[in-house]
Specification:
Number of domains: 2
Number of helices: 2
Structural class: alpha+beta
CATH topology of the largest domain: ATP Synthase, domain 1
Order of helices and strands: EEEEEEEEEEHH
CATH architecture of the largest domain: Sandwich
Radius of gyration: 16 Å
Shape: globular
Distance between the termini: 31 Å
Strand order of the largest sheet: 2-1-9-8-5
CATH superfamily of the largest domain: F0F1 ATP synthase delta/epsilon subunit, N-terminal
Number of strands: 10
CATH class of the largest domain: Mainly Beta
């Protein structure tokens, strides 16, 4: 049996992903990194975008938001504000939500409201990019 590591992705809503995988590719604040079993321990900030998990020779693609990553030799634990498998993204709904968020941003908003809308725009944009990259 090939060596694996446990990938767990948790959002405020639920545990979004939990499985044994052969490799994880993600983007931290210092750039893209590939994590294999027995990787040296580290903690880093996760940059929103895409995570690729390799399981049984197949890639699983997830759109993720900003967050934190903890790596041990046996486990990759990710805490993020969004994690959605590419096949579960509704591109049309994401595009509609993005248009609404962009329209809302053009209104007079408090700093807190503007930050919330900008975070929403980042989430929808990430989902659209990941979905388009992996659509058949």
């Amino acid at each position: 049996m090939a060596a694996t590591l446990k990938l767990e992705i948790v959002t405020p809503e639920a545990k979004s992903f939990s499985d044994d995988v052969e490799m994880v590719t993600l983007t931290g604040i210092d750039g893209e990194m590939g994590i294999y079993p027995q990787h040296m321990p580290l903690m880093t900030q996760l940059v929103g975008g895409e995570i690729i998990a390799r399981k049984d020779g197949q890639n699983i693609f997830l759109a993720v938001g900003d967050g934190f990553v903890q790596v041990t030799g046996e486990r990759v634990a990710i805490l993020t504000d969004m994690a959605i498998r590419a096949e579960n993204i509704d591109e049309a709904a994401a595009e509609e939500a993005l248009k609404k968020a962009e329209a809302r941003l053009s209104q007079k908003l408090s700093d807190e409201e503007a930050a919330t809308v900008q975070a929403s725009i980042a989430h929808w944009t990430t989902q659209i990019k990941v979905k388009q990259r992996h659509s058949k």
